[in-house]
Structures are given as structure tokens and as C-alpha cells.
């Protein structure tokens, strides 16, 4: 009887241990595993989409498992109300700033406030999840580095952040996206998940 109880206890420990390891591996996979994204790579060098001398952490990179499957987009963690700057010059193509809604559920997918800038080569810069009334430039030309809006948490989000992507065509097909290198205090780089990047002062 005692032996039987011991072996049951061992089995319990074994199953608990396996479940624990599987759970940890599952959670870690969201940080370290990513899906493949487009091979498109822009020759233009982008400015980080926030103010000079400030820094923000990338909380989801290209192909991230949370919401960037096959999507070449970057999420920068950013408190609501942080000034968002144009990463590249162009003309305001479209925007929305009426939404007050945001949250983790899929029903919020189309509730994000945003700005889309059309670059001179025909590609688009997309700035998502801006705060209510967070669009500061609604038409005309903007220069790289100019403040264009205020970040927020509208649309489908877990936490306040800025979602930025470059696209050749405005849809979510893998090759509509373009990867971009950014000018950072770490040099001109493709951005990696979990890394904090600072926009150089000069
Ligand atoms: Zn995103």
C-alpha cells in the first residue's frame, strides 16, 4: 500500500514537472520564436518614430507570435500620450482619431486610431493605436522626425504601444510589407525584439 502511494506520488511529480516545463517553454516561445516575414528590405534609412534622445523597448518584432505572424511590423512600448514622430517624410494619406476603444479582444481589431503616410517612393508608413484625438497632422507634407501624433492603446492591444510598419500595398499579405533599417544610437540596424532603442540627438 505504501509503495503504491509512493509511486502515485512520483507519477504526480513527474506529470507536474512535465507540465511546468511545457508551460515555461510555451511562454518563452512568445519572446524568442518568430514566424518568417518578407525578404523585402528598404534601402531608405528610417528615423525611430519618437523624439530625439528618447528611448523605447521593442515589445514585439518582425514575425512575432502575439499578433505579427508573417507581418513585418514593430511594436514599441510607449505610455499613452507619447509624441509619435514621422519615421520618414511624405504626405499624410489617411488617418482616424475618433476611436476611444481598445482592448485584447478581437472585436477591437478595427478600433485603432492611426496615421498612414505616403512616402515619395509610393510606399506607406503606418502608425497604429494612437490615442483618442491623437492625430496632430491631418493633411499635407511631413518631414522625417516631425511630431505627427500621440500614442495610445486604441484597437486590439494588450498594453499601450505604437505599432509601426512599412508597406508597398495596404493589406496584410506577407510581401506587402517592407523591412526597414533604423538610425539608432546602436548604429543603423534592423530592430530586434526585447531591445531598447534610442533615437540619436544628432
Ligand atoms: Zn503590432
Summary keywords:
202 residues; alpha+beta; Glucose Permease (Domain IIA); 2 domains; eleven-stranded mixed beta sheet; two-stranded antiparallel sheet; 15 strands; 15% helix; 36% strand; binds zinc ion
Description:
- The radius of gyration is 21 Å and the shape is elongated.
- Strands 1, 2, 3, 5, 7, 8, 9, 12, 13, 14 and 15 form an eleven-stranded mixed β-sheet that branches. It has a two-stranded antiparallel ribbon with strand order 4-10. A two-stranded parallel sheet has the order 6-11.
- The protein has one helix at 2-32; strands spanning 41-47, 55-60, 73-77, 83-85, 90-96, 102-103, 113-118, 124-130, 141-142, 147-150, 155-156, 161-167, 177-184, 187-189, 196-198.
- It has one helix and 15 strands.
- It is α+β, with helices and mostly antiparallel strands.
- The mean pLDDT is 95.
- The protein folds into two domains: 1-33; 41-198, Glucose Permease (Domain IIA) (Distorted Sandwich).
- The structure holds zinc ion.
- The site of zinc ion has 6 residues, from strand 3.
Amino acid at each position: 500500500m505504501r509503495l503504491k502511494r509512493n509511486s502515485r506520488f512520483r507519477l504526480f511529480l513527474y506529470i507536474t514537472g512535465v507540465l511546468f516545463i511545457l508551460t515555461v517553454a510555451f511562454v518563452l516561445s512568445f519572446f524568442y520564436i518568430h514566424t518568417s516575414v518578407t525578404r523585402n528590405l528598404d534601402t531608405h534609412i528610417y528615423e525611430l518614430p519618437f523624439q530625439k534622445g528618447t528611448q523605447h523597448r521593442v515589445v514585439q518584432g518582425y514575425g512575432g507570435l502575439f499578433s505579427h505572424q508573417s507581418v513585418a511590423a514593430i511594436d514599441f512600448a510607449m505610455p499613452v500620450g507619447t509624441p509619435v514622430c514621422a519615421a520618414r517624410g511624405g504626405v499624410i494619406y489617411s488617418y482616424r482619431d475618433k476611436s476611444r476603444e481598445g482592448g485584447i479582444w478581437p472585436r477591437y481589431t478595427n478600433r485603432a486610431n492611426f496615421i498612414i503616410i505616403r512616402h515619395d517612393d509610393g510606399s506607406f508608413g503606418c502608425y497604429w493605436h494612437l490615442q483618442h484625438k491623437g492625430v496632430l497632422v491631418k493633411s499635407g507634407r511631413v518631414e522625417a522626425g516631425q511630431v505627427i501624433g500621440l500614442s495610445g492603446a486604441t484597437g486590439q492591444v494588450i498594453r499601450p504601444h505604437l505599432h509601426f510598419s512599412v508597406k508597398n500595398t495596404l493589406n496584410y499579405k506577407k510581401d506587402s510589407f517592407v523591412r526597414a533599417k533604423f538610425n539608432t544610437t546602436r548604429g543603423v540596424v534592423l530592430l530586434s525584439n526585447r531591445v531598447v532603442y534610442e533615437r540619436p540627438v544628432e
